[in-house]
Amino acid sequence: MTSGAAGGTSGTTDRADWIVAYAVLTVATLLFATVNVLSYLDERTAMGRLVPWWEPAVWEGTSGIVLLLLAWIPMLLVTRFPPYGPRWPRAFAVHLAATVPFSLAHVGLMIALREGAYALAGEDYRFGGGGLLYEYRKDVLSYALYAATFWIVLSLRRRGRAPEAGPSSFEIDEGQRQIRVRPADILCVRSSGNYVEFSLADGRRPLMRATLGKVAAALAEAGFVRTHRSWLVNPAHVTEIEAQGSGDYGIGLVDGTRLPLSRRYPEALARLRGDRSN
Question: What is the pTM (predicted TM-score) of this model?
Answer without folding.
Answer: 0.57
